[in-house]
Design a protein that fits this description.
With 288 residues, this protein is of the alpha+beta class. The chain is built from 9 helices and 4 strands. It has a 4-stranded antiparallel beta sheet. The two termini are 30 Å apart. The relative contact order is 0.15.
Amino acid sequence: MAAAATDTIRYQVTGMDCSSCAAKIEGAARKVEGVADVKVSIASQVMTLEVDEPAARLPLLESAITGLGYQLDRIGASRDIADGDDDDRIPDLSHVTPAYKRALWIVVLLNVGYGVVEIVGSFLAGSQALQADALDFLGDGMISFLGLVAVGWGLAARAKAALLQGVFLGLLGLGVVASTIYRVFIEHQPESVLMGGFALVAFVVNVLAAVVLIPHRKGDANMRAVWLFSRNDAIGNLAVVAAAGLVWWTGTQWPDLVVAFAVAGLFLQSAWSIIRDARQDLSAARDR
């Protein structure tokens, strides 16, 4: 009996915003019979897998993933490459409208602009949590910018851009961790009123960014991710506000330092995920 025909299938995944999302998608895909070697990249938002009898298996796979709340867009199969097709392009660019681009530019300017403001504020207030939050703003601005310029790019180009972004964000995160560790040994109480004020403004900025993106939250993976980042970061801003209240109440710097470590740790985890997946995407692009 002849072996079942297998093929390499690739999908653009919409709705991922963290490594746990990728793990959830991979787990659901592996439960489908005939599916193997599943890999979901946070950097390029692409799922690659091996499947036998694609015509029979893919409907089951797609149903399993979309049932989790994610959207799949088929990019291509290994035989497409043999025919000379570019399977690295995003298949549907209908969402790339002037309004889409304007929304992303607004988010870039909001995040980068207030990131710079909050860095200044972190020094004025003497707050490490504000410094970590400012780093988060700058990181989101870079992610938004990549979403703006990378529409329609091939896999290798998206991976290279993501790799540079991940390295830069990782270095910034390590800098915040180092300065926070230094503050552990230096007795210093942040200005809680300034700290809370800048964090409240940060919350407003993130809410504005989310509002700008609400009409586009069902767009491509980059746009969907940016919307989720803005929503989640607004929650993070409230944590900094709470830390400012605890600094005022306890008269110590520890609430500020704890939140700073937490935010910086999550940031470094995201940066590492981007770097790891970008390297794997580059390797896959070279193999093709």
